[in-house]
Each structure stands twice: as C-alpha cells, then as structure tokens.
Amino acid sequence: MSRIAATFAHLKTEGRAGLIPFVEAFDPDRATSAALLAGMAARGADIIEIGMPFTDPMADGPTIQAAGRRALRAGATLAGVLDLVREFRAVNGTVPLVLMGYLNPILSYGVERFAADAAKAGVDGLIVVDLPTEEADLMLPGLRANGLDLIRLVAPTTSDERLPVVLKESSGFVYYVSITGVTGTRTASAEDLTRDIPRIRAATDLPIAVGFGVRTPEQAAIVARHADAAVVASALIDRMASGLDESGHAPHAVIEAVLDDVSALAGAMRGEKRAA
Amino acid sequence: MNQPIPNSLRNLPDERGRFGDFGGRFVAETLMPLILELEAAYEAAKRDPAFQREFEYYLKHYVGRPSPLWFAERLTEKLGGAKVYFKRDELNHTGAHKINNCIGQILLAKRMGKTRIIAETGAGQHGVATATVAALFGLPCVIYMGATDIERQQPNVFRMKLLGAEVRSVTSGAATLKDSMNEALRDWVANVRDTFYIIGTAAGPHPYPAMVRDFQSVIGIEARAQMLEAEGRLPDVAIAAVGGGSNAIGLFHPFLDDAVKLIGVEAAGRGLNSGEHAASLSRGRPGVLHGNKTYLLQDADGQILEAHSISAGLDYPGIGPEHSYLHEIGRVDYVAITDDEALDAFQLCCRTEGIIPALEPSHALAHVAKIAPEMPRSQIILMNLCGRGDKDIFTVAKHLGENL
C-alpha cells in the first residue's frame, strides 16, 4: 500500500479528516523549508504538500506568487526540491509528501527522469496545476512506472457529466478546488461544501481533500465535517511572510508561530467527526 | 462548409488543438470546462453563415476593410531590387490589425451570452482594440497591463480609459505582457460564469490559436486576391513581424499551400547573444506556458525568462504554437531584427513612403531592406504593415535623443 493510501486508511480507522499543510520549497530559504517540513510532521500534519516554485503561477493568488518569487531568489530548482524531500525522508518514513507545481519546470527536467528521481527521493504524489485530464497522458505513464499518484483537481466548474472524465485513471486522492478563483482569496462556505462534496463522492471512491481558501481552525473544522482532508497554504505563508526579518530570513520565532498554527488546525480538525 | 484539403498545411489543429507537437490545452481544471464550451461555441459560429456575415459587416463598415495593398515604389527604387508591396493594416480603425480579431471574439462573446470582457495588453494596441469593441457593444471591460508597459505607453492607457475600460496595473514579474496574461487568466478563473477573455494573439489554450488565426486570416485572404489583381501572380516572399504572431499567421495562413516563401521576423532586441531579446524561435526551446506548448524563452530549470524588445508588442517570451510547428517543419523561415535595425527601418519608411509605421512592422521592414536588394527586380515581396506608429513616437524620440 502507498503512503497516501495507508494514511487515508489510518484516518478512516480514527474517524477523522486529515490536515495537509503547504510549504513553498525554499521560501524564503532552504533551511526554513526543512525546519517547517520536520516541524509540521511533528505537529499534526497527516500529509504535507510542497510547492515547486515557478515564475508564472497562473492559479495562485498574491501570497503564493510572492512565496514563489522569494523561493526562486533563494535558488530553488526542482533538483533542490527533491533534495529537500530526500532529507525529510531520511528521518520520516510515514508522512506522505505531495509536490504541487506547474508543468514547464518538469518538462524541462524531463518527465521520465523527474518521475524516477522524485520516487527515489521519497515523493508520493504530484499535483500539476496546468495539466488537465485532457493532457495527462504526457505524464501518467512515467508517474505510474514509478509508483507515483497524479492527484487530480476537481473544480466547482467541473460538471457532473465531466467528473468521470476527470477522475478516469486517478489515484491517491482527489483535490477539490473549492472556489472559482486563485489560491488564498475566497473561502467556500459550509453550504457550498454540503452541496459540492456529495456529488464528487458519487463519482469516486478516492478520498477527497479540500483546498483553496481554507485559512482558520474553524474553517478547517468545517471541511473536516464534509471531506477527508483540508489543505491549508496561504494562511501559513502569510504568517511566515509577515514575520520575515529585514534581510528576508525567517527568525526561529516565526517558524514556531507557523507550527503553532499547524497545531491549532490539527486540533480543531480532530474535534470533528466525519459527517459521512 | 469547407472540406479539408488532403496534404494541406491549412487543416490544423487536430481535435486536441495540436499543430504537430505544439498547442494543446494546458489550463487548470477550473478553466477546462470553459475552454471546451468556447471551442464548441466557436465551431458552431464558424459554420453559421449569419455569424460570418455579421463578422464581415463589422470588418467592412466599422474597421474599414479591405485595407489597401500599396506598391511602395519609392522604397522599391531606393532598395534597388524586388518590388515591395505593403498590406496596409495600419489603416484599420484603432491603427493596427488587432481589431480584426477583437470584432470576431466580441461577436462570439455576445453569441455565448457573456456580459463582461477582459483582455491582456502589452503595447496597448490589443487593449485599445478590445476597449473599442467593448464600447461598441456596451459591455464592461477590464484590461490588464503591466506597470512597466503603462509607463511607456501612456497615450494608449488614456485611450482605453476614454473608451470606458478599466485599466488594471499588473506589478508581478517584470510587469509586462507575460504578467498581464497571467493576471487576466486569474481574473477569468475567478469570474467564470459571466466573463469572456479576448486573447490578443494567436497563442493560449486551444481554441484561441486557431480562432485568432481564423479572424486574422482576412489579412492574407485580401492580400492574396489584391496581389493577383495587381500583378496577376502571387508574391515570391511574404513577410511579417512575429511577437505572439497573430498578424503573421493571419498573413501566412492563406499562402501556406502556395509556392510563396514565408518569413517571420522576431525581435532580436539588443542582439540575439545579448540575453535581451524576444526571439523565442531563434533562442528558445519548447515548453508550456499560458495554456499551450510552444517555443519559450526559459532558463535551464524551465523558469520563464523576461523578453526584451524596443517594441512592446513583440516583448513576449513565447510565440503562437502554429509558428512553432511551421518553424520545425521548415515551412516558414524565422529571422531576427535588432532594436537599432528596426529604428532605422522606421525612419526609412517615414521618409520614403510618408507612412509612420509601428515599431512591430518596422522589424519586418528592416528584413525587407536586407533581402530586397539581393533579389531581382522581377520578384515581389509582400509585407504586412500591421500597425501605425503614432503610439511609438515617444519611444522613438527618446532613442533619437529628441525631447518631446
């Protein structure tokens, strides 16, 4: 069983939804990302999503755009991201790591080579924002051959008729982009989720994670009632960005503040029993 | 309507929106259903004679088509070789070829029941053309424009405002065309139900490259007929400037199956080896950006590089996917012209033909000036003069050391 499948099986036995915090790799530097990965795993993250910086993040709002710029200035490359994964994996064999990014850097690295190197480093799944189902054949064979999940995105614009098309040959979990908009801008309401999650459930047996706009413990708790996991990204990056020192580095206290947020999110979600 | 011609280069893209290995639909899932809806609506409109009639009506009575084909006699004499003809798309309403495509897309938006228009712009020509058609059809319009471009294209910013558009300044990245396109895509994702995104060049996710090409093909269709009338034969060479490549593909497409040499002129900026240029085909390699696979300026890690050209309209690190295909199969030759060469051609055109050209077609003209003297007087060059230079006089004045 893959780490992702094992994690969701474990969550099911505990009757709770998982927390997926996000780290933009190399934002603002490599050491901070390494500290956040290790700290998040210790503070209640069930899966960690790692952003692969790109110059043109078309689906991201101002927060993640700024994080990507800081990361690229710090010298982020895909090879560097995989090295960060390798370091985490050396001390943690259980928490799944999902890379999220855009297609062009992967194409540049070489799809087959990237899939092989990512699997070897300890990556479990990939989210490629600008690779819709219609173009997924570009990566699927390479990812499959290396035991990696290609996590599919489903959006509010994905019709019931289209859901089976999008979810065809999907694995790992389904990532529900709960708003029409870029990351970190709006938040889906409990009513939205009550309406949206069941129609995705009807189309797949895979676990459903909800992302885009989940910021507070209260919002994460609402997601926990409806879905199998909540992704929190921009709120954590905002916390860190607001505490960067004059040289653009993250002081120890800021990393601790981000990790305290992770603890609070995890705590709030553990208090919620799944509705389904 | 038209049966596909076997062995024709004019049948692309395929059903996946591919021109060979290029093109496609590389967008987030949120946009994918909209792209598919747009494709279906465009296919239906293309087959609807009423839509075509409406398009032709606006081109004739509003844009002022057909644009003339002009024999540039004094220029021809000065260059001393092949006869040079200009396709005068700078005489269109709003001063460039951009309006052809905007008319087509806003008619489609209206047909689809969309009530809000967005667009990206670099030099501001596409922004002005979009603001113009939005005013004509009474639809609210938001134009995304890089802060750097806003600074160097003030007259166009004011034109858009006069036309009732809201110009939103984009400060991410280098704050130029690439970044405006990112921001327009973000707007579209957030306003999927009511918004129509009028892309200005023959790039982006399918069906945009094919749709923009079809709307701009009026340039080549007219020029082909006008050339036959004027000379009784087709030109030996057809030439156009290429940024994203919409005026060039509009000129080239009707000639793809003819024995006409086609030349696209990229912007070499401060030189192809200076690192400051916009020559995606000459110096880039294939990748994926803004919804399509195409040649891009990028670093070894696949991060997109900033383009540079004196011409804001060519200042883009990518190119339409059909050009990438035509480059790879060798049907079109792509060459590059520097800022300085374009400035010389700009002045040459002013003084020999009494036409102030935009800096974009000045790149094409600079290449004409290179090849015409080497060609016999019996041969013919057709060049697309795709825009007029009113918008560029401040930029040119600065480079010539004049203070306006």
TrEMBL record, chain A:
<keyword id="KW-0057">Aromatic amino acid biosynthesis</keyword>
<comment type="similarity">
    <text>Belongs to the TrpA family.</text>
</comment>
<dbReference type="InterPro" id="IPR013785">
    <property type="entry name" value="Aldolase_TIM"/>
</dbReference>
<comment type="pathway">
    <text>Amino-acid biosynthesis; L-tryptophan biosynthesis; L-tryptophan from chorismate: step 5/5.</text>
</comment>
<protein>
    <recommendedName>
        <fullName>Tryptophan synthase alpha chain</fullName>
        <ecNumber>4.2.1.20</ecNumber>
    </recommendedName>
</protein>
<dbReference type="InterPro" id="IPR002028">
    <property type="entry name" value="Trp_synthase_suA"/>
</dbReference>
<keyword id="KW-0456">Lyase</keyword>
<dbReference type="GO" id="GO:0004834">
    <property type="term" value="F:tryptophan synthase activity"/>
</dbReference>
<dbReference type="InterPro" id="IPR018204">
    <property type="entry name" value="Trp_synthase_alpha_AS"/>
</dbReference>
<dbReference type="Pfam" id="PF00290">
    <property type="entry name" value="Trp_syntA"/>
</dbReference>
<dbReference type="InterPro" id="IPR011060">
    <property type="entry name" value="RibuloseP-bd_barrel"/>
</dbReference>
<comment type="subunit">
    <text>Tetramer of two alpha and two beta chains.</text>
</comment>
<keyword id="KW-0822">Tryptophan biosynthesis</keyword>
<feature type="active site" description="Proton acceptor">
    <location>
        <position position="60"/>
    </location>
</feature>
<feature type="active site" description="Proton acceptor">
    <location>
        <position position="49"/>
    </location>
</feature>
<keyword id="KW-0028">Amino-acid biosynthesis</keyword>
<comment type="function">
    <text>The alpha subunit is responsible for the aldol cleavage of indoleglycerol phosphate to indole and glyceraldehyde 3-phosphate.</text>
</comment>
TrEMBL record, chain B:
<comment type="subunit">
    <text>Tetramer of two alpha and two beta chains.</text>
</comment>
<dbReference type="InterPro" id="IPR006654">
    <property type="entry name" value="Trp_synth_beta"/>
</dbReference>
<comment type="similarity">
    <text>Belongs to the TrpB family.</text>
</comment>
<dbReference type="InterPro" id="IPR001926">
    <property type="entry name" value="TrpB-like_PALP"/>
</dbReference>
<keyword id="KW-0028">Amino-acid biosynthesis</keyword>
<feature type="modified residue" description="N6-(pyridoxal phosphate)lysine">
    <location>
        <position position="98"/>
    </location>
</feature>
<keyword id="KW-0822">Tryptophan biosynthesis</keyword>
<keyword id="KW-0663">Pyridoxal phosphate</keyword>
<comment type="function">
    <text>The beta subunit is responsible for the synthesis of L-tryptophan from indole and L-serine.</text>
</comment>
<protein>
    <recommendedName>
        <fullName>Tryptophan synthase beta chain</fullName>
        <ecNumber>4.2.1.20</ecNumber>
    </recommendedName>
</protein>
<dbReference type="InterPro" id="IPR006653">
    <property type="entry name" value="Trp_synth_b_CS"/>
</dbReference>
<feature type="domain" description="Tryptophan synthase beta chain-like PALP">
    <location>
        <begin position="64"/>
        <end position="387"/>
    </location>
</feature>
<comment type="pathway">
    <text>Amino-acid biosynthesis; L-tryptophan biosynthesis; L-tryptophan from chorismate: step 5/5.</text>
</comment>
<keyword id="KW-0456">Lyase</keyword>
<dbReference type="Pfam" id="PF00291">
    <property type="entry name" value="PALP"/>
</dbReference>
<dbReference type="InterPro" id="IPR023026">
    <property type="entry name" value="Trp_synth_beta/beta-like"/>
</dbReference>
<dbReference type="GO" id="GO:0004834">
    <property type="term" value="F:tryptophan synthase activity"/>
</dbReference>
<dbReference type="InterPro" id="IPR036052">
    <property type="entry name" value="TrpB-like_PALP_sf"/>
</dbReference>
<keyword id="KW-0057">Aromatic amino acid biosynthesis</keyword>
